[in-house]
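HUMAN: I'm a chemist; might I ask for a sequence paired with its structure tokens?

ASSISTANT:
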Amino acid sequence: MSDSVVAKGRRPWQELGLALRKVADITLATGFVALLTAVAPAATGGPALAQGAPRASAPKADAGKPDSGKPAERLLVEAAELVYDNDRNTVTARGNAELHYGPRTLQADRVIYDRKASRVFAEGNVRLTEASGAVVTGSKMELTDDFKNGFIDALRVQQSVQLNGQTVRTRFSAPRAERIEGDSTSFDYGTYTACEPCKNNPETPPLWQIRATKIVHNNQTHTVAFEESTLEIGGIPVAYLPYFETADPTVKRKTGFLTPRFLTSTALGSGLATPFFVNLAPNYDLTLSPAFLSNQGVLGQAEFRHRLETGSYNLRLSGIFQTTPSAFLPGPLGAGDRDFRGSVESKGQFYINDRWRTGWDVVGVTDKWFLDNYRIRNQSITTDYFREAVSTAYLIGQGDRSWFEARGYYFKGLSSFDWQKEQPFVAPVIDYDKRINGPGFLGGEVRFEANITSLTRQATDFQAVQSPTAYLQTPTINGRTYYLYETCTSFSRGQCVIRGLAGTNTRASAQLSWRRSFIDDVGQVFTPFAYLRTDAFFVDPRTSGYQNALSANIATQDADFSGRVLPAVGIDYRYPFVSNFGPLGVHTIEPIAQVIARPSETRIGRLPNEDAQSLIFDDTSLFEWDKFSGYDRVEGGMRTNLGAQYSVVTPAGWYANVMFGESIQIAGVNSFRRGDIANVGLDSGLDSRASDFVGRFQLSPNQHITFITRGRFDHADLGVNRVETGVIARLAPFAPIDLSAFYSYYKAQPALGFANRREGVTASATYHVTPNWFVTGSALVDLSHYLDVRDNFQTAYASYLANPVGDAPVYRNPGRAYLSGMSIGGGYQDECTTVSVNYIVSPVAAALGTSERNRTVLLRLELKTLGEADFRQNLNTAITADGISTVR
């Protein structure tokens, strides 16, 4: 029996089993698992070894190779049936066959393993799973026994990768492909996409795909090369490239070109930015992004990023020697007189330990228009009505009940209407906050707060409030007059205020406070509190140069050193009445009373006020111990704050809350009645003995919809002095829409420079037409803009009558509802594609009350795993805020 040689060491029952194999084909029972050797018995006519055979069997195909010291990997087969053919030296696995070799798994309806040729032939629902999780499918596969080499018919490869926190599946397919050394796969006439196939009709072309004569995916270098490739959108060819290569989606960092960016404007011409990424090391890299512009030459950009063990930082440099500077407005409206323009940007953060961190975020530019002119993006720059770049460096420490922060600030105005000499340099700004339990005999909580702030500016910032506005410069360019850098015509108290004082101002403040709550047997809550506030000022005003000396006409400033001390004691009383009405919910009525006794505020108007100018009296500040927004002012005098609130919560999810109250000055000087150098406190609703009433109403029928109204009402007749009302809705369970809309009304505040009421509507909405398609829009409608236009025209016309030079001003009525800002757009988003288009109208600057608006179209396209591109085009004529002199 030449085909049933008995191996040594076998037990008698094993020998009997082998002796029964006298026919060429022997079928083994289902559920069998076999460990197959990769070396054929060859001339020995040795037997096929089944499970249970001794481990003395021949090793895998590495038998003739030097011993590496590592155990040889073996091919493990699982199937419903295994058929051994000793004459042909093959093993056939049928019925849910699975072959495992190391980390790779091959599944098919039928697999033939040719032991002599060391080849595996699989057919019928063939599926090969890589160690990385990538799945290769096909109708037929011919592979080596380690699955590294071979040919595949009707190939499909699916791989899951993480991209920006999302799982994206990529797919390759081809009628035939070759697998080479397990490291690369060559697809003949293949396609590549990240789009899911249509469930109802898988043969429908995906939204986008790359079709190429040959695609080579190299798993060793993690690159994908496309030869004679065409980009198809919905099956329609739209772009052709003879050859290109890109990193595969598993690669996060690889040297090579990034997606190009197109630039176009009248000033720049047409241009193309070609970013090139250099992967210098796993923790640092360099991106070079030259932009070739037809009108201005080459804009050079370079960004270096470095990640260290305790943090990271980046440095970005940009610069250009302009070939056509005249495309931009001359100074002071633009950089038309500059040949070289550039910027330096850097951001970093480092963790010193688990409690302390330090960092910076700085922007330096040769001129205020550069970043906008050359479309250089920076997330730290505000681009709404007020444009500025804020540079800061900081040190932050955080404990369990403490906080420390030290910062420095430099503000760079980026609009033609900003005068840089009025911008302050602020350093340092140091804040410390520490809370501890009160001593045993007091209990409660003790809190210590401290702040040190020092700032310097060159020119005093004046603002006219009840007199016509003047301007420091009125250049006329291309027949148009521009009004730059607001100031006053009358430098006297009541006609002009000081928003920022020239010179150096340094203040150190500290406050020590204690509070404790007591609840009696009937539920009354008593919270006594006390605090001691101290402030030290060192003021070195600058009275020379510019208009700085005129500040003395408005207020007498304390120079050198001065200080103030303010102790206070008070009590907060609340008595909540709670009743449960079952299905009607839990109702709570809570009267609130607060009394604070302290001496009057001193040196009002004799000290700078930089950080306490945004005083808003409403429901959120009614029960604040100090209603000023910063340290430069401190509330003094004896005052009581009275109010009550009612709320209801129902089992069905309804929530409603109503609050109403007022503040009354009992004794001492009313800090809000005596305005400082910025008139803060006047027209605030707190400047009379009995304040305006403040209230709030909130209604939430469910967790998706909230209606809220808050307002301030005149104490004498309940006239509306301030109101904000609106709705925030997320209607996804009912209708696929997100909505917010608010109406705001603020009565005229002439003492603060608002001669007319301010009234407007803001609204935004996103409607999901389908799970993939959406439309979105937002609008800012100014309902009082026409009042400012009318007043400014009257002022300009009076000036023209007094000095009739040039053309007389023309009144253009903007209408009752002036669309100050708007955005409307839509798009499509799915697992592989994002495309959106937006039309944006944004306010740029205000000159003579006529707000110029910037009209822009934005188009963005992202093909996931391939890259993204965006296009921006301005549609309006020249605007002063970007310093461009011609129509774009």
